[in-house]
Design goal:
The protein is mainly alpha-helical and 71 residues long. The chain is 46% helix and 0% strand. The termini are far apart. Bound molecules: zinc ion (ZN).
Length: 71
């Protein structure tokens, strides 16, 4: 008997995974552009702690309230 899960659960997981992939692809673009590791809002360098916890983070702790500082 296959383990059948609600479609909504699988869809939500897929959406989260796609968002994570998009974040990483965006980070790779920024590495190519030479501005990886800076906040996209204030352009200040992001703390190492942020980058270590969320390597694909786009903003510093002050400018990512919707994501949380350490998503
Ligand atoms: Zn910032």
């Amino acid at each position: 008997m296959p383990d059948l899960r609600p479609l909504e659960d699988v869809t939500a997981e897929l959406s989260a995974a796609e968002a994570a992939v998009a974040d990483v692809e965006h980070a790779l673009t920024r590495i190519d552009a030479g501005d990886y590791g800076t906040c996209e809002v204030c352009r200040e360098p992001m703390p190492d702690a942020v980058l270590e916890t969320v390597p694909a983070s786009r903003t510093c702790a002050r400018h990512g309230p919707e994501l949380g500082p350490l998503r």
